[in-house]
Write a sequence for this structure.
């Protein structure tokens, strides 16, 4: 699994402070242009999860910022929650989901491991499984996803 620092994701640093100010965390930001229309996918989460109200609030606050940044009003913006079984696309997402249950495919054992995210950095994630903590380097993780409530 690859670690891509948020500062290396286009427009992430421009949008993250606004979203944090609304009490949410920015999980994923995808911005691309198709013909003349900008398409923006925003995935957010919060301490108690997110619903339609939070997504609407973020959408309304983020739209003018994106119009200014991209110098366009021709855009489609979608704001969603990560869902219960989100597939983690970037190892940097582990820090957002600290305290949450995840499953990782550990290539050392060729099997899924489930645990709670204790901490993460640029090289590895630490999961609490049963009564012990395991540090797993991202290079050993082939896939990862949220495990949802148990």
């Amino acid at each position: 699994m690859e670690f891509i620092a948020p500062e290396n994701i286009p427009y992430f640093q421009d949008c993250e402070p606004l979203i944090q100010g609304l009490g949410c965390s920015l999980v994923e930001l995808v911005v691309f242009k198709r013909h003349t229309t900008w398409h923006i996918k925003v995935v957010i989460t919060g301490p108690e999860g997110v619903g339609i109200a939070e997504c609407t609030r973020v959408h309304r606050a983020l739209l003018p910022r994106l119009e200014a940044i991209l110098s366009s009003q021709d855009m489609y913006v979608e704001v969603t929650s990560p869902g219960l079984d989100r597939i983690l696309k970037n190892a940097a997402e582990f820090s957002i989901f600290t305290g949450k249950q995840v499953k990782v495919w550990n290539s050392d054992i060729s099997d899924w491991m489930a645990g709670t995210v204790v901490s993460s950095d640029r090289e590895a994630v630490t999961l609490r499984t049963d009564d012990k903590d395991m540090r797993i380097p991202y290079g050993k993780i082939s896939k990862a996803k949220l495990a949802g409530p148990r």
Notes: Strands lie at 25-34, 37-45, 75-80, 101-106, 111-120, 124-129, 132-137, 141-146. The longest strand covers residues 25-34. The longest helix spans residues 52-70. Residues 6-80 form a domain with the GMP Synthetase; Chain A, domain 3 fold (CATH 3.30.300.70).
